Amino acid sequence: MSEPGDYFSLRTLGTTGLRVTPLCVGTAALGDMPETFAYSVAEDDALAAIRETLDSAINFIDTAASYGDGESERRIGLVLRERGGIPEGFVVGTKADRDLTTGDFSGAQMRRSVERSLDLLGLDRLQLLHLHDPEHTTFDAITAPGGPLEVLLDLKDEGLIEHLGVAGGPIDQEIRYVETGCFEVVVTHNRYTLLNRSADPLLEIAAMRNVAVLNAAPYGSGILSRGPESYPRYAYQAASSEMVERARQLQATCDRYGIPLAAAALQFSLKDPRIVSTIVGASRPDRIEKTLVLAAFEIPDELWEELESVPSSSIDPETHRWN
Question: For 207-245, what is each residue's pLDDT tens digit?
């Protein structure tokens, strides 16, 4: 049987020394991004969700410069200022991004992005900073002299960044960055779920190199939490009829055991020893408690065995459309 209590003990985030909960609250939606999530999040709701996170059993929150073009960081910063800074034992991670208007992904842009994040969050240094979405340029451009990676390493030497990670999409590219030895943490999203396991090679390589894995979007952007009938989308795009059918099979199997599909989807990520923390998005304060409840469901081994019989895909959802 699963032991839910295992999901609430602090874990060490790779070589960083940071101690984090297996659950991390993702705040992309709190940046008010209706074009991505199909709904808006008012500032009052966002601030309430952030306060609820700080008061919960979760000690880890994730954001990015690109979430609402700084709006997510700004809202988090408002609450951190209310609290007099980051609460003791809490970890805030963010990401350095290209210029969303011009597409500039230079070393100079990385410095500007970090400096803006520090200002919006109201901090003098960042505990954890990820190079974000490097697929928007090339590996050679990222690693060139004076390029984004060199500048981020300089910022780390300057003490503005404590620990450096990489957060992106395509798995082959993520593996290439992990293999540089420059990153302590790697974030993958939508690629290790009950429906898609294309990130499995990344998890293996990261484990061998002692690079901590953060797994984001365990619900595949909503199909595994809202259900395939209510939300037939995966990774922010329309899901194929084949994927929707597999989601229905997962749903029916969970229904027979009286277990929410969302609980199984979440715990699929939480129970993998290669994953240090699972990033779950929250758009309202009540989502924090609901996530904790889903993590605490006792799931019988027999259900896991039946869920394993439903095929999953190893195709990267961004590099190939579902078919």
Answer: 999 999 999 999 998 999 999 999 999 998 899 999 999
Helix 261-270 vs helix 241-257: crossing angle, to nearest 10:
100
**Residue 319 pLDDT grade (very low, low, confident, very high; cuts 50, 70, 90):** low
Q: Provide the 3-class DSSP secondary structure of residue 21.
A: coil
3-state percent breakdown (helix, strand, coil) of the chain, nearest 5: 40, 15, 40
Rounded distance between C-alpha atoms, residue 141 and residue 107, angstroms: 9
The reported pLDDT for the residue numbered 32 is 84
pLDDT tens, 112-125?
A: 999 999 999 999 99
How long, in residues, is the chain? 323
Return d(Cα 294, Cα 215) in angstroms, integer: 17
Contact 72, 64 (CB under 8 A): yes
Q: Please give the structure tokens belonging to residue 283.
A: 């758009």
Q: pTM to 2 decimals?
A: 0.94
Check residue 26 and give its pLDDT.
97
Torsion of CA 313, 316, 317, 319, to 10 degrees: -140
Amino acid at 284: R
Q: How far apart are CA 297 and CA 119, in angstroms?
A: 40
β-pairing, 11-12 vs 233-234, is unpaired
What three-state secondary structure class fits 215?
strand
Q: Which of 183, 115, 117, 119 is closest to 153 using CA atoms? A: 183
